[in-house]
Specification:
390 residues; mainly alpha; globular
Length: 390
Amino acid sequence: MNTAETSIPGVERLGRTALSFGLGALAFFVVLGLHNPVQFFRSYLFAFVFWLGLPLGCTAIRLIHNLVSGTWGFPLRRPLEAATKTLPLMLILVLPILFRLPVLYTWADPAKVAADPLLQYKHAYLNVPFFIIRTVIYFSFWIFVTSRINKWGRQQDETGEAGLTQRIKNLSAPSLLIFGLTVTFASIDWVMSLEPHWTSTIFGMIFMVSEVLAAMSLLTITVIRLSNEKSLNGMVKPKLLNDYGNLLLVFTMLWAYLSFSQFLIIWGANLRDEVPWYISRARGGWAGVAIILIVFHFAVPFLLLLTRFVKRRAQMLRSVATLLLIMSVVDIFWLLTPAFNPAGPKFHPTDWLAILGIGGLWLWRYASELQGRPLLPVHDPRLKALMQHA
């Protein structure tokens, strides 16, 4: 295996282009935001939640693979590490939201809390200081776990120490449980609390699966793009692509199952405080967005991923993964934006400038972290055993 390769020209170009494009989009975004500060922060929250979902989804996949191993995960190792290393950047990008919480959340406005008995009841949890403290706790845990695992992974690359594999596995088991709890509470804080009268015990799981699906789509696109690199040692073959297609299929089905279960339970129970959340998302223009999600975030990918013909062909699988990634943006838009525009979608230019601007910075950091190390963890003893078995 070639361990000397430290630079991937195509990835370097992607990073430079993404940074230039992102900074340009952010400049226009700020200019438009000066004329409409409220919409500025709404668009910023939408973009932040989507792009944060990618490193969080990658964290979940990395923790799972640490526990179960499997050939499918080793070509993903470097993209997973690169994605998780963007979490410090996302910590910086969350700061504008923390400074202007009353613009986004009714529970952060003292006047609205004083006029609403339910918000007064929830004030012990939904208040600005505690919200900020929880956000610090979430990021501290995410960055600590990913940094520790990435550090041990780098040490293993350099020294080949076999004991590091067990150390990573020992940390991953409890971390996966705590990770699920932190992402659940983060989704409640950042998205569900936009409409504090609505609650759902399954929302955190839906949000987590959506993040993992988006992350797996990105990883599939990345590995296919890098499949011709020598340091992957020819591992990206139809069988491996079939595995990635199966993972995309599983997460697509799980997303659809959980989303429909939530809808069925709430709609069937006809609860006064919960049904309005769906009413605003199932009428007018939002109904059209919901139909788009049903068709292109579930039905079309589901049917395509059922066939080995699609899953074993790199370009076809990449097209499906790209569709799922785009639909993940639409999914976040449908979950979040009706809280501000319940009558129907309003496609503000700032929404897409925020997506492009934050996305440009994130992709630049992601591409930068892909450089400098071989694309396979060549000293991981599990990889050596799997390669010998193969």
